[in-house]
Amino acid sequence: MAVNDSLTENPFSYLASKDGKVRIFRSSKLATTLRGKEAIRFLSKIESADESGSQLIMARVTGQYKFGNEKDLRQK
After folding, report:
1. What does the alpha-carbon distance between residue 69 and residue 76 come to, in Å, rounded to a whole number?
2. What per-residue confidence (pLDDT) applies to 45?
3. Who's near 49: CB < 8 A, 6+ residues apart?
4. C-alpha dist (Å) from residue 2 to 7, 10, 13, 61, 65
């Protein structure tokens, strides 16, 4: 299964609150909370991205992004 397939089947969502926090969810579970400058940067990136791009941005921010080299690292 490709990364994009995984993001399509199990997408991220986010909620920006009035207190400046951004909460990112996956499978209705909180994955991470962004605050301050990190939240502002995230919101500026996400508003100019399409749906696929926004999923990749959220995956990277949460650290739940597979790069494809994990198997190689485990073999070393």
Report:
1. 11
2. 96
3. 57
4. 9, 12, 19, 19, 11
